[in-house]
Structures are given as C-alpha cells and as structure tokens.
Specification:
Layout: E1 7-8, E2 10-15, E3 27-31, E4 41-45, E5 51-55, E6 66-73, H1 104-111, H2 113-123, H3 144-170, E7 173-175, E8 180-182, H4 189-223, H5 235-242, H6 244-254
Parallel strand pairs: 1-3
Antiparallel strand pairs: 2-4, 3-6, 4-5, 5-6, 7-8
Helix pairs in contact: 1-2, 1-6, 2-3, 2-4, 2-6, 3-4, 4-5, 4-6, 5-6
Length: 279
C-alpha cells in the first residue's frame, strides 16, 4: 500500500488497544480525534467503506493535529479489537446486567469480587495494588490475578477458622426462660482476642480491595482520558467505597468487548485466550 495523504476521519473515539505484529507499515495522514499518547491504536474510516486500524507515533499527538499514523490493519483481514472508548465509559456504573444476570463478569464480580478485580489488573498490566508493571516484571509468575485469588481463598479459610474457635462466645443465644436473646456470659480473654483479630483481618482485607479498586479505576480513567463526572477529586474513592462491585464490573466491561469475545471465569485476564491483548 502506497503512502496516502488523504485525511481519514476517525469513527468516533474508538481506540483498539491490542498488539499486532507489523512488518514495514504503511502510513496515512489522520486528524487526531483527541489527545492520545504514543502507541494508541484506533479505527479510521476508509473512503471505500472499510475500516482501518492505525497507531499513534511515539510522543503522542494533540487533538486536531494532522499526523502520520502507521497502518496496523488495512481493514481487509477481518481483524477486530476491543474497541475501547476514549473520553467516556463504555456504559454506566449500574449497567452490571447489560449482558444478562448470568454473564461470567457479573457473577464473578458479585460472588468473587477480588478475583474479578485481579483479572482487570492483569488485563491492564498492573500489579495487585494497581501499580503499572515494568518490562522486567510483566512476566512474573505471580500475576495480580493469582495474588487476588490467593488473597480471597486465604481470607475465607482464615476467617472461617477464627470464627470456628469463638463461635460459642460470639453467637447470640436464646434464653428460653426469659425469652431474650443474649451473648454468652464470662467470655474468656483469649476469645475476645481471637474475635478482635478476626475483625482486624476483615478490615485489612477490605482496605486492600478498596485500595486496589481505586488504583485500577484511576489508571483506566487516565489511560482512556475519562473525566470525573461527580465527586470531583474523589470519584474513584467514592465509587470504590460505596459501589465497589458495580465499579469493578464497569471496569471489566469497559476494557473488553464482550460482544465479540467470550468472558472466562478462570483465565488470568477474564477473557478467552483468543481475545486480543490490551497494550
């Protein structure tokens, strides 16, 4: 394909953020639909009706600037990516059931929240606390998904064990003589200590999930240039604290095109292995 000077207009704000091996790319002139960092990939409309996938050069571009974009796919090979929107969320915070109440993303987020969060962190190349991975650590054996899965299982096992130790002292008991519900009398010191440890464990577990959710959401908003819509300055915290499950589910839907690629409950990224990788 020869180099073209035609100004193709982008199809909305739809970057396609997956890696493709490119040999001797051709270039076209494109008008930037928004501020985009180097390496961003998005669709442009070809005059003959098909779509092309192009990438932003190193250093990034500013909105409205005409720049030479490398053609990653000329629209004739049937290639399709995740079409991740820029400048807005793909859908709303409470659109958890957009794909049905039995969709793997909704079910996993509802019942195994840290595992779903770990898949998003791994998908976005972040570690288990939401810090971007360096090239040296991207292939670490313990991905965010595995860490979060281990954290979830470890918490459930330890919490159940501690509760088993003190259940006779912390359970509400019914007094048949008075018809009242009361706690056990003369609770030994060790039971109080174990029960306090259990509550501290739950608090620490919740704080880790909250912190990772805030970091992941903040990273996704920055990567895709999504402005805060409410609670300016603390939207990520508010969404993670008050609507954690819905927020995690929204991040999963935003960073994957579930209409084109199947979700997978037990994969590292929550996607079918054939789905393109997000870069």
């Amino acid at each position: 394909m020869a180099e073209s000077s035609t100004n193709f207009q982008p199809i909305g704000d739809i970057p396609v953020t997956q890696g493709i091996v490119v040999v001797a790319p051709q270039f076209i002139d494109v008008v930037a639909p928004s501020d985009m960092p180097g390496g961003y990939q998005f669709n442009v409309d070809h005059p003959d009706g098909h779509h092309m996938v192009v990438t932003v050069p190193e250093g990034g571009v500013k909105q409205g600037v005409v720049f030479k974009a490398a053609i990653l796919n000329d629209g004739t090979t049937g290639f399709k990516g995740h079409s991740i929107p820029v400048g807005r969320w793909r859908d709303g915070t409470f659109d958890c059931c957009n794909f049905g109440c039995c969709h793997p993303v909704f079910c996993l987020t509802l019942w195994f929240t840290p595992v779903a969060l770990g898949q998003i962190l791994t998908r976005m190349k972040l570690n288990w606390i939401g810090t971007p991975l360096s090239p040296e650590t991207k292939k670490a054996a313990w991905t965010a998904f595995r860490v979060m899965a281990a954290l979830f299982v470890g918490y459930q096992v330890l919490d159940t064990f501690l509760y088993y130790l003190v259940q006779d002292y912390v359970q509400v008991q019914y007094n048949a003589n008075t018809g009242e519900y009361t706690y056990a009398n003369d609770i030994p010191m060790w039971a109080n200590i174990v029960d306090a440890m259990r509550h501290c464990l739950t608090l620490a577990y919740g704080l880790v999930i909250l912190f990772a959710t805030i970091r992941a959401r903040s990273h996704i908003r920055a990567k895709y240039d999504i402005p805060e819509q409410c609670c300016t300055g603390c939207e990520d915290f508010c969404c993670g604290f008050w609507c954690g499950v819905c927020s995690i589910c929204q991040m999963a839907r935003h960073t994957a095109d579930y209409r084109s690629y199947n979700a997978a409950c037990c994969s590292e990224t929550g996607l079918d292995p054939r789905a393109p990788e997000i870069v």
